[in-house]
Amino acid sequence: MGSYELDAQGKKLPMDGERSAAPRSVTVTALNKDVQEQLRQQIDAGPLAYLMILWIERSSKESRLGILAFDPVTGQTRVGMAGLDKVQQSAVSDYLQRQAQR
Length: 102
What we know:
Number of domains: 1
Number of strands: 7
Strand order of the largest sheet: 4-1-5-6-7
Order of helices and strands: EEEEHEEEH
Largest sheet: 5 strands, antiparallel
Oligomer: single chain
Strand content: 25-35%
Structural class: alpha+beta
Distance between the termini: 21 Å
């Protein structure tokens, strides 16, 4: 998930003329009460710019990336990379880099 970076007056900070968002990653290995509380704290921490669930499917010969993106404003859900903005694409890229380091 990510939230917009805000200035001292609470206005969204632009970055290179576009929206800037600060990613907040939470690793979920099991959906127990501790993880649910971590997620709740992250959601309550600030206004969400995006909420994404990313995973690597490793059960087949090829590892495949799974993406679900939720728009907190419209409530719409997207599957896959189609329609993701630059901030969301950057979050996917960061996730893939973290997975490659494992």
